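idk why but the lab printer keeps eating my pages so im just putting this in chat instead. protein + glutathione:
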Amino acid sequence: MALTFYFGSGSPFAWKVWLVLEHKEIPYTAKRLSFDQEEHRSPEFLKINPRGKVPAIVDDGFALYESNAICEYLEEKYPQNPLLPKDAQDRALVRRLVGEADDSLYKVGSTLMDKVLYVPAEERDQQQIAEAKEAVLAELAYWNGYLNGDFLAGPLTLADFAVYPYLRMPVRVDERVPGLGVKTVDMPVAVAAWMERIEALPYFGKTIPPHWKE
Ligand SMILES: N[C@@H](CCC(=O)N[C@@H](CS)C(=O)NCC(=O)O)C(=O)O
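predcted complex ->
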């Protein structure tokens, strides 16, 4: 039985899993759930994830949600094109970066998104936006400091796929409402070059949130 991948367009958690599926060349069927139509709250999907959140997968009848659990499961079940190093300390570094991204980077990116994209233009609070942008730039300094090779933990790992979608959020804000988000030119040089390396991966284009292309 094939693997089914449930995602919502633009979900950074789903994007992470999508990159892993593609990198590992795992055959899958992607099912896009519409947030607007509340498909993530349908009785069928709630059987897969009772919390009604994406991403989720069903692999050979095994339903799993929570993006990090899914990525680790895929890594173990499909060992080709590995994304976790063998050495215990190297693995710990990858997991630390994933945890740190969830804990810190996602929060500042989603705060900026909330303040700009989910508030009508006339109600946007410029002070709050400036603070949110400042918080993103402060966070970027950490990630810039971590990069001393092509990828975050040496070779390409789960850490890169966990971090990229979060870093893309403030750039997306800038694309949608120019001047209010973090432009590519605001990115520290090493972070911008790293983003370009991820974007140059042969399968990257396939994983771009579909509604960005519509
Ligand atoms: N910790 C979860 C977060 C999943 C999550 O929050 N997904 C959002 C999309 S970005 C969602 O499905 N939200 C729908 C809702 O809460 O109603 C993971 O890593 O998979």
